[in-house]
Amino acid sequence: MEKHTIEECCEEFLSDQHLKQGMQDLLLFLQELKMKPLWYHKASYKCNYKSKPVLHINMGKENWLRIRVCLVTVNEMQESENMDLYMSVLNDDLSVAHENYLAGVKSCEWCKGCGGFCEKRKRSYYINNPTKEQFDLIKSFIMARKEFITKYYAK
């Protein structure tokens, strides 16, 4: 499978100006955070912070874009204070947005390979073809995830 840069995939799959601009802004934002989306599979990219999952981007067909932001992994949730720690890194506005977008949060399904016990199992925020407001929310969740990783793994 030939690897393409995320910019090449954006050019190939995204003709909608809103999606193109949103992805350009998101990629600049990630660059400022020194986080680079790495090729994962076909038109799929993942982005980690300190080797911990943060973001997964999929593109395909004409103007189909799905972004998944990891909120917290199952292993990180083992201790009850971790969700409190995660919620504490959300500012008031984002906390309200978090409540409003819980419908977009899903848990990874169990796979035969790990039986549901690997660190890849996580609660994630999924959004297809984000609006400008949703791109902003994605950036806020990325910042919250980054801060959570910094605090949680500093223990």
Listing every helix as H and every strand as E from the N terminus to the C terminus, the arrangement reads HHEEEEHHEEH
- CATH architecture group name: 2-Layer Sandwich
The chain-level mean pLDDT equals 76
Helix percent reads 40-55%
Total count of helical runs of at least 4 residues? 5
What fraction of the residues are assigned to beta strands by DSSP? 25-35%
Poorly predicted regions are 100-120
Structural class label: alpha+beta
Q: Can you list the strand order of the major beta sheet?
A: 1-2-3-4-6-5
- Global morphology: globular
CATH class: Alpha Beta
Biggest β-sheet description = 6 strands, antiparallel
CATH topology: Yope Regulator, Chain: A
Number of strands: 6
- Span between N and C termini? 40 Å
Tally of separate domains: 1
Kindly provide the radius of gyration, computed on alpha-carbon positions and rounded to a whole number of angstroms: 15 Å
What does this structure look like?
The protein has a single domain, classed as 2-Layer Sandwich (Yope Regulator, Chain: A). 41% of the residues lie in helices and 25% in strands. The chain is built from five helices and six strands. It has helices at 6-13, 17-32, 81-89, 92-100, 132-152; strands at residues 38-41, 44-49, 52-60, 64-73, 105-107, 122-128. It has a six-stranded antiparallel β-sheet with strand order 1-2-3-4-6-5. A hairpin with a 3-residue loop joins strand 3 (52-60) and strand 4 (64-73). The chain is globular, with a radius of gyration of 15 Å. The model is unreliable at 100-120 (pLDDT under 50).
